[in-house]
Amino acid sequence: MISVTVPIFNEVENIPILYERVRDALATVGRRWELVFVNDGSTDGSREALDRVAEADARVKVIHFRRNFGQTAAMMAGFDYAQGDIVIPMDGDLQNDPADIPRLIETLDKGFDVVSGWRKQRQDARITRNLPSAIANRLISLILGVRLHDYGCSLKAYRKDVIKGVKLYGEMHRFVPIYASWQGARVTEIPVNHYARQFGKSKYGLERTLKVVLDLIVVKFLATYAEKPMYVFGAFGVASLTLSVLSGLWALYLKLFENTTFVQTPLPLVLVMTAIMGFMCILMGLLAELLTRTYHESQDKPVYLVKETRNVEPALGSGPEHALVE
Q: What is the DSSP string of 287-311?
């Protein structure tokens, strides 16, 4: 089954047109499908428009949020409620082209686990949208190592198993291909159509670039240090303690050889502050290590992922269903 998921926030004019275009595109695929709309607290009549579409077509599911939680939360809800083995998220503003869906599925069927859309001819404001997006895409590819031209394009195709268990926060929906790649998924990219917005207004501005940069820091930390947070906190702690020692030695040198008293230089204050900071960072690292172990051990979270096995019996102790029975 194919599941198309669409976050909706104040897109009342676009909903009937989007439904018809998605329906027509999926009719050419030859597989069962469903369309999952997630109403992210709309206030413009989108709720009623979605209910009318769902009433007319049982293949349409609608999830109404109590209030606006943001695009990432709405996309997460779409993943959770999707029943298909292939999940295709897309925007609800008609800028993505549903006619690209069959091409995404065809590419997925070539052995890939994630197919990401690339808005090669993007129809948005060049300065306020395209330029910040291009900078963000370059940074993400450089720092995280997965080479894609357009992380911000919502139109993607995923095999359900590669997004199972993925939890998204902030603006992290754009990083789903990264999470999938970490689990060994094969990721590729194809150019897709992109159109200028016809109805409504954009919900994004330049402030979104800052959010993406901050989320990028979080993702990089999780990718590199989630299992060993002490490496981050400990490194800062050691650097601070080293600076503290150097400040103390310099202050002593000035006192003994330059006749400069401690009160004539800020070095003693630097010594004390950096020493405190260093010890605090190391203690925070130890605390983070305890939290990491609690996270894995209390929930029986594995520290590795197995794709498949041959002639291997289930490991004892891996869950209640594998308990030894005498």
A: HHHHHHHHHHHHTT--SS-----SS
